[in-house]
Q: What sequence folds into this?
């Protein structure tokens, strides 16, 4: 598995979610994704619940 450059997937905008890092083009924060993973959700479950994400987005959150 190759390393993901999180800068391609994550942005910080003071006007979105109070400047927390989010997945580009969404309002889903890195913290949200990490919390879902920590609570036991699999990548597949997250992708099923949030179709605007992809596997690379999840890996970018982990790299961040």
A:
């Amino acid at each position: 598995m190759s390393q993901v450059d999180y800068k391609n997937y994550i942005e910080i905008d003071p006007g979105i979610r109070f400047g927390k890092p989010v997945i580009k083009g969404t309002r889903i924060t890195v913290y949200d994704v990490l919390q879902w993973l920590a609570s036991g959700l699999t990548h597949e479950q997250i992708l099923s619940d949030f179709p605007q994400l992809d596997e690379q987005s999840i890996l970018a959150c982990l790299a961040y």
